[in-house]
């Protein structure tokens, strides 16, 4: 996730279909249950229908996916905070590598799942521009000026072709979503995406433009999410899966503890080719397949423990892209200002706990509705002036005027 190579159980009602959000991040909404479901199971808190009162049912967000998005973004922020600690702590490095195995894959799988309805319809293309492309430009420029000031680097160039730090995800999501129609017509989409990722990791000539290595190497997770069905998420919510996930996570931590001094965590960033990491090309093939398998297993284990009901943090799931992009200023600022070098106690166990709590708290605040309202101009600009009005919009305007 960083731009530097680091050494530094029951059966439930089906999940809702996907909807394309305005801000470029999956924003699930649960429709009212089908007639047969209404007599067999009560509506969940996140998908309650107003049909009983006779009023028009309102679409509401599904708590499971909002919870998953929030928890994943908290893990992203915490992992960024752990990075400076891993040089002096093998345990921190093991935890860092374990979390890096699944936190962004989980987020990307959800993004793919809620991109299933994407097509080239004008309104969806508009949302793609205003919810992904425009925020990319804004934050790429903002990050550049921040680095110039905070890192005393006035020569830092503004380059929209070279995503800096966290903005790579916006580029990737833009490209992935544009390719959705193609993935719907090919056979064996997930193996094909995995083959593309494998070819990318052994192709050092791809270069850094638009961070294409990350776009291609993370592609299989988006395609996997694109073809996920609601019952798959029901499957991982079974009690036996939750119980099995405990020894799986424990085994992953032990494996990471063993691997920490023997490999570089740069493999998990998926930003470089095997050759750029000083490994033979065949190691890239092995690592791509192995990491994909590990990521899928740990992502399933993560989903198994995501609450399905409404929680205090469920509402924050709508603001995860805000938290993701905004927390980067503090994450990078802590490096530029030498906090981890100036305060040695942060490298002690209590300091590591403190850093984790602060990171989780900061990203939580940045996902709140007040922060969303404050930065909506950058994250969800309407920009009606930039687009032609389509026939449906003109019809609505005429209906209002009459």
UniProtKB/TrEMBL annotation:
Identify the residues that the record assigns to the Acyltransferase domain, covering every copy: 63-366
Where are the residues of the annotated region Disordered? 1-59
Pfam families per the record?
Answer: Acyl_transf_3
- Protein keywords: Acyltransferase, Membrane, Transferase, Transmembrane, Transmembrane helix
Q: Does the keyword Acyltransferase apply?
A: yes
InterPro entries named among the record's database cross-references: Acyl_transf_3_dom, Nod_factor_acetyltransferase
Q: What are the transmembrane regions?
A: 63-82, 94-115, 127-146, 158-176, 188-206, 212-229, 241-260, 280-305, 312-330, 350-371
Molecular function via GO: acyltransferase activity
Q: What is the recorded name of this protein? A: Acyltransferase family protein
């Amino acid at each position: 996730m960083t731009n530097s190579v680091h050494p530094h159980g029951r059966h439930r009602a089906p999940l809702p279909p996907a909807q394309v959000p305005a801000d470029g991040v999956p924003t699930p909404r649960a429709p009212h249950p089908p007639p047969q479901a209404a007599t067999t199971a009560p509506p969940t808190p996140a998908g309650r229908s107003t049909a009983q009162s006779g009023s028009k049912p309102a679409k509401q967000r599904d708590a499971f996916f909002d919870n998953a998005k929030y928890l994943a973004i908290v893990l992203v922020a915490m992992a960024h905070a752990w990075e400076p600690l891993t040089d002096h702590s093998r345990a921190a490095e093991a935890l860092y590598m374990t979390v890096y195995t699944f936190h962004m894959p989980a987020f990307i799988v959800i993004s793919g799942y809620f991109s299933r309805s994407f097509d080239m319809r004008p309104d969806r293309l508009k949302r793609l521009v205003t919810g992904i492309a425009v925020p990319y430009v804004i934050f790429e420029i903002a990050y550049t000026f921040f680095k110039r000031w905070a890192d005393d680097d006035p020569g830092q160039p503004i380059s929209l072709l070279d995503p800096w730090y966290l903005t790579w995800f916006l580029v990737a999501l833009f490209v992935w979503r544009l390719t959705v129609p193609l993935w719907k017509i090919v056979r064996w989409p997930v193996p094909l995406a995995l083959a593309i990722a494998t070819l990318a990791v052994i192709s050092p000539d791809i270069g850094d433009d638009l961070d294409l290595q990350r776009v291609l190497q993370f592609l299989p997770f988006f395609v996997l999410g694109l073809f996920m069905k609601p019952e798959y998420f029901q499957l991982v919510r079974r009690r036996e899966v939750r119980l099995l996930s405990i020894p799986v996570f424990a085994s992953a931590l032990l494996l990471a503890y063993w691997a920490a001094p023997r490999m570089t965590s740069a493999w998990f960033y998926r930003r470089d080719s095997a050759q750029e990491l000083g490994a033979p090309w065949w190691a890239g093939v092995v690592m791509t397949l192995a990491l994909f398998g590990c990521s899928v297993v740990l992502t399933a284990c993560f989903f198994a423990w995501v609450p399905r009901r409404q929680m205090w943090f469920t509402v924050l799931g709508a603001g995860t892209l805000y938290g993701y992009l905004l927390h980067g200023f503090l994450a990078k600022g802590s490096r530029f200002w030498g906090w981890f070098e100036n305060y040695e106690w942060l490298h002690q166990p209590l300091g590591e706990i403190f850093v984790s709590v602060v990171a989780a708290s900061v990203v939580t605040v940045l996902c709140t509705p007040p922060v969303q309202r404050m930065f909506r101009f950058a994250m969800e600009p309407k920009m009606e002036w930039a687009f032609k009005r389509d026939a449906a919009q003109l019809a609505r305007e005429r209906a209002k005027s009459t």
